[in-house]
TrEMBL record:
Residues 1-26 form the signal peptide. It comes from the Bacteria. This is Tripartite ATP-independent transporter solute receptor, DctP family. Pfam families: DctP. It comes from Desulfopila aestuarii DSM 18488.
Length: 326
């Protein structure tokens, strides 16, 4: 009898607890993915988003991170996110271009004056509009926020100071025809290749170089096999984190709003971690003997004008608005 009473009590207690927290979406563990390793700013910011989400929902929604490209390269992970096999993906905007062509405006060479300009654009109205366009596109992705990808510079096995030095060199670019066109216009020979294959391609001389921001150049150990870093600054590609539309539709409106709020916080947190990581990476590769080479950026800017014309022609109005951002 006593036992039965306490069972009833327990059931009542559970019942009222459930009523109190009124779970709108069922329990779920979000599978998050990134090509970067544990400890990289983007991965850390995403993990913090997960911890906050877990706390705010009393453990109802948790996040499990799959870093270091264990779920594939970005093209493959975008596809997995579209079908709901990955719930949240942090990716460069580069490989999103072939899926949502409009984002290619941000992927164009020298479209931003400098990093401050790029940040003002992604943090502001235009950044919000582009996220909304990704979400509204048929890609089945819900764009949650931006992350900083800094400035991409050229790195090679032999020093490059001028366009002539770049002649005939095979340079790995991300999977998007825009980037191959960019490298070809700069004077090199653009080769589209997945991120995961790059280290050994550099090591064995399948390619003569690649291009990326200092944190990637450092953490992927590319500096050990391509020790010349030419400050071309040709691309400043923002990164995004997106949720699968399939997952998004399973969430209640309250949970969606919570995730949006935490996404903005993650965007701002990554920014701070990013700046520290850039400084650390530059110092580390210099210490390891990497030579930083100043180049005449104007030459590369002029050489890539046809790429901006080709990919920007349908977005003239948007480009004007980007230029007008202070
Ligand atoms: C990095 C970026 C990655 C990936 C990589 C690449 O800067 O953070 O998302 O796109 O570049 O070159 O493939």
């Amino acid at each position: 009898m006593k036992f039965r009473k306490s069972l009833v009590g327990l059931a009542l207690a559970i019942g009222s607890l459930t009523m109190m927290s009124a779970p709108a979406s069922a329990n779920m563990t979000l599978k998050a993915a990134d090509v970067h390793p544990e400890g990289y700013p983007n991965v850390v910011a995403m993990e913090h988003l997960g911890q906050k989400l877990e706390a705010a929902t009393n453990g109802r929604i948790t996040l499990k991170m799959f870093p270091g490209a264990i779920l594939g390269d970005e093209k493959a992970m975008i596809e997995q996110t579209q079908v709901g096999a990955i719930d949240i993906l942090r990716t460069s905007l580069g490989p999103v271009g072939p899926v949502v062509p409009e984002v290619n405006v941000f992927n164009m060479p020298f479209v931003f004056r400098d990093e401050a300009h790029m940040r003002a654009v992604i943090d502001g109205e235009i950044g919000d509009e582009l996220l909304a366009k990704i979400t509204a596109s048929p890609a089945k992705l819900v764009a949650l926020g931006w992350m900083d990808g800094g400035t991409r510079n050229l790195y090679t096995k032999k020093p490059v100071k001028t366009q002539a030095d770049l002649q005939g060199m095979k340079i790995r670019m991300m999977g998007n025809p825009l980037f191959v066109d960019t490298m070809n216009a700069m004077g090199g020979n653009g080769i589209s290749m997945g991120f995961g294959e790059l280290y050994s391609a550099l090591q064995t001389g399948v390619v003569d170089g690649a291009e990326n921001n200092p944190p990637t150049y450092f953490t992927q150990n590319h500096f050990t096999v391509a020790p010349y870093y030419s400050l071309t600054g040709h691309l400043m590609i923002p990164e995004i984190f997106v949720m699968s539309k399939i997952t998004w539709d399973k969430l209640s409106a309250d949970d969606q709003a919570l995730i949006k709020k935490l996404a903005r916080e993650a965007q701002m947190e990554q920014r701070e971690l990013w700046d520290a990581k850039v400084a650390e990476s530059v110092a580390a590769v210099k210490k390891a003997g990497v030579e930083f080479i100043e180049v005449d950026k104007k030459v590369f800017y002029d050489a890539t004008a046809p790429v901006r014309e080709k990919y920007g022609k349908d977005y003239a109005e948007l480009i004007k608005r980007i230029e007008a951002v202070k």
